[in-house]
From TrEMBL:
Record organism: Centaurea solstitialis
Name of the protein in its database record: Amidase domain-containing protein
SUPFAM superfamilies: Amidase signature (AS) enzymes
InterPro entries: Amidase, Amidase_dom, AS_sf
An example molecular function term from Gene Ontology annotations: glutaminyl-tRNA synthase (glutamine-hydrolyzing) activity
Ranges of residues in domain Amidase: 1-127
Pfam families with a match to the protein in the record: Amidase
Origin: domain of life: Eukaryota
Length: 300
């Protein structure tokens, strides 16, 4: 419905909507885009990025919105080489066990060196670190709101108000330990990047947690559709999108963009559109009734 949109992600709010809708999106390096005017959930995790039809559009939008924001101290002018001039034949790209192999084969056919890859880190629970970080950051942001009792007026009491109240009883020691674990995770992931990028599932929750904690950019790439069974018959009118992720080290968003653009030059998954009516794939469009023009209009 729009040429592009801006998404905000703390823990999956760019990657999951993009994957569900079958669009191309970029969750950029943390700090690449200023967040002034955007409601914050976690100031150390929040990121803004483009959701578009193609990687080319993502590159154009990112180039416009990126850079230092004087009102957002975490923002900075990240290194962003021109993704259109990247020589992908000089790149070594890893692929995880859950990568979509079509993407691997297409990139290989374009001259990219593709190798098996594993992201190594020793932290036990990336999800636990993310939950502690997000909840405490969120409580700090909405502290006055909660202390003044305004959360009692919130309609869905079992959602954010409960989350904030739970965060208030997190011991300071546990929060500090979680941030130490986060620092260790960041170091280990950066050290394990022995490739220029890697391909893997974009919506795997562990990768979503790790990527957001590290501030790692990822392209969400549509790679096709799968049919959804419609019991009790095997025939179905429903399809779900299939996506994969192309991850790059922090500050190397241009690499993920370049690889996605290369993939999309020989595929058309990103050009698919949902139907604008309720017809199934085997339904016939009925002949529309002829318009009847009232006599008073014909008579002037």
């Amino acid at each position: 419905m729009v040429p592009f949109a801006i998404g905000s992600e703390t823990a999956g709010s760019i990657t999951y909507p993009a994957a569900r809708c079958g669009v191309t999106a970029l969750r950029p390096t943390f700090g690449a885009v200023g967040r002034t005017g955007v409601m914050s959930l976690s100031e150390s995790l929040d990121k803004l990025g483009p959701l578009c039809r193609s990687a080319v559009d993502c590159a154009i939008v990112l180039d416009v919105i990126r850079g230092k924001d004087p009102d957002d101290l975490s923002s900075r002018k990240i290194f962003l080489d021109d993704p259109f001039s990247v020589d992908i034949t000089k790149l070594t790209v890893g692929y995880l066990e859950d990568a979509e192999m079509e993407v691997v084969e297409v990139l290989k056919s374009k001259g990219v060196k593709m190798v098996p890859f594993k992201l190594d880190y020793t932290v036990d629970s990336a999800q636990g670190i993310l939950n502690f970080t997000m909840d405490v950051d969120m409580l700090a942001h909405f502290d006055t709101w909660q202390r003044s009792g305004q959360d009692d007026e919130y309609e869905a009491q079992d959602q954010w108000p409960t989350e904030l109240r739970r965060a208030r009883v997190i011991p300071a020691t546990d929060y500090v330990q979680s941030q130490r674990a986060r620092g260790k995770l960041v170091r280990e992931v950066r050290e394990s990047f022995t490739v220029d990028a890697f391909v893997g599932n974009a919506t795997d929750w562990e990768k979503v947690c790790v990527g957001n904690l590290v501030g790692m950019p990822v392209m969400v790439v549509p790679v096709g559709f799968e049919m959804i069974p419609d019991p009790p018959t095997e025939k179905t009118r429903r399809r779900s999108t299939v996506t994969t992720g192309i991850y790059a080290p922090p500050d190397h968003d241009h690499i993920a963009l370049a690889l996605t653009m290369a993939y999309q030059t020989v595929t058309d998954h990103h050009k698919q559109r949902p139907p604008i009516d309720d017809l199934g794939p085997d339904d016939v469009i009925p002949n529309p009734p002829k318009a009847v023009i009232p006599a008073r209009i014909l008579q002037g």
